[in-house]
Amino acid sequence: MTCNPQHIKLGEDSPQTRADRPRSCIYIRNFIPSKNIISTNIKSQNITQVAISVLIEGKNRNLTLLALYNPPSTFIGIQELEQRLAEINDRHTPMIIAMDSNLHHRLWNTKGYPHQHPQSRKLISLCGRSGFKMISPKGQPTFMGASGSATTIDLTWANSVVSKLISQCNFQLENHSSNHQPIITELNLEEKTLNIT
């Protein structure tokens, strides 16, 4: 997948073996000074975590971003997310979770798509009790399967601290050679608009 020239990619890029390759990354607009970006080394192929120092309500705050890949064969990403949130979740810290959930549920499925994974209920429960609500558009396809079926499996969640700063959360048609549509989340901050993919 190619990177939009207006963004920088954050996440591990040098796996020791093919089996160790990362399955998640985060793209942010390249106007964010590198001194404001704090990358966290997580021993997981499925989660990327960064914090960005931003000005919110006159105070410097760390906005935490999590990118999650939930493998469709095992759905282990939800368990890893649960463990990660148990370690870092603080309802006073602005946090966004972007994910390739590989899960279907009527809350976000495209119209007329009946399939639901039992694991999707666990995701909804985990995010709800952790103080997150889904902010990505519901019912819009984000993934084109090999058979041509269009489903919604890419989701974005935000906690209440950051929800009030979100100016938009929409899909972008330019997918940079991926079979997934990127979800652009834009925040209105005091310094400049922050655009996260």
UniProtKB/TrEMBL annotation:
<dbReference type="GO" id="GO:0003824">
    <property type="term" value="F:catalytic activity"/>
</dbReference>
<protein>
    <recommendedName>
        <fullName>Endonuclease/exonuclease/phosphatase domain-containing protein</fullName>
    </recommendedName>
</protein>
<dbReference type="Pfam" id="PF14529">
    <property type="entry name" value="Exo_endo_phos_2"/>
</dbReference>
<dbReference type="InterPro" id="IPR005135">
    <property type="entry name" value="Endo/exonuclease/phosphatase"/>
</dbReference>
<dbReference type="InterPro" id="IPR036691">
    <property type="entry name" value="Endo/exonu/phosph_ase_sf"/>
</dbReference>
<feature type="domain" description="Endonuclease/exonuclease/phosphatase">
    <location>
        <begin position="65"/>
        <end position="184"/>
    </location>
</feature>
